[in-house]
Amino acid sequence: MNVMEDGPSIIWGVTCLVLLIASLAARRLPLGQVAKMSLAWVAIFAALFAVFSFRFEFQSIWERVKADFSGTAGQNVSGEAITLRRQDDGHYWLQVLVNGNDVRFMIDSGATTTAVNANTAAATDVDVDSSGFPVILDTANGRVTAKRGSIKTLQIGPHKISDHHVVVSENFGETNVLGMNFLDSMQSWKVEGNVMTLQP
């Protein structure tokens, strides 16, 4: 504890406590009641002081909770770069707008093309070519068939990608994957430690 910095706060707290006790004593209440009320007020002051002292920590916790709920945990989009922190599952996840709709993607440099599951494609108006021949893909769960498609606008913060080619299949489960064709649309990308940096 830095006494010089905390001194004014301590003096202010002691002064308030003394004034409180003096005020209660002036009302000529029984000593036991004065003690109980004093302890209650001390607890209130201590709680307020703790909240004030740890306000920045509480703000960080709140920001983390909001990020977890919104799916943007570990993601930071600035005017110059997008930085992603590796998540507990070992993957990098990116929240993007697909034709104006929020969608969470896993980034996979081992995938050639961005892959969108059928439910997401239907919900975000992905243009799916149902007339062409299906595409055969090798995935971690074996070979699957998919259809070619296109996302009219894929946006991360201020960065927009138009007519982004994708493959769509019901066999992708609930996962959406940004593949190498997404990474190739960046000016550059790199991984250092547990942080991936994308330069649009």
Describe this structure in words.
By secondary structure, the protein is of the alpha+beta class. It has helices at about 5-25, 30-55, 55-70, 120-125, 180-185, and strands spanning about 75, 80-85, 90-100, 100-105, 115, 125-130, 135-140, 140-155, 160-170, 175-180, 190, 195-200. The strands form 2 sheets. Strands 3, 4, 5, 6, 7, 8, 9 and 10 form an 8-stranded mixed sheet that branches. Strands 1-2-12-11 form a 4-stranded antiparallel sheet, with no helix packed on it. The chain is elongated and about 90 Å long. The model is unreliable at about 1-5 and about 60-70 (pLDDT under 50). InterPro entries: Clan_AA_Asp_peptidase_C (IPR011969), Peptidase_aspartic_dom_sf (IPR021109), Retropepsin-like_bacterial (IPR034122). Keywords: Hydrolase, Membrane, Protease, Transmembrane, Transmembrane helix.
Structural class by sheet pairing and helices: alpha+beta
Order of helices and strands: HHHEEEEEHEEEEEHEE
CATH superfamily of the largest domain: Acid Proteases
Q: What does the largest sheet look like?
A: 8 strands, mixed
Cα-based radius of gyration, to the nearest Å:
28 Å
- The global form is elongated
- Range of helix content: 25-40%
Q: Would you give the CATH topology of the largest domain? A: Cathepsin D, subunit A, domain 1
Strand content: 35-45%
- Average pLDDT works out at 79
Terminal-residue CA separation: 45 Å
Keywords: Hydrolase, Membrane, Protease, Transmembrane, Transmembrane helix
EC number: 3.4.23.-
Transmembrane segments: 7-26, 38-56
Enzyme class: hydrolase
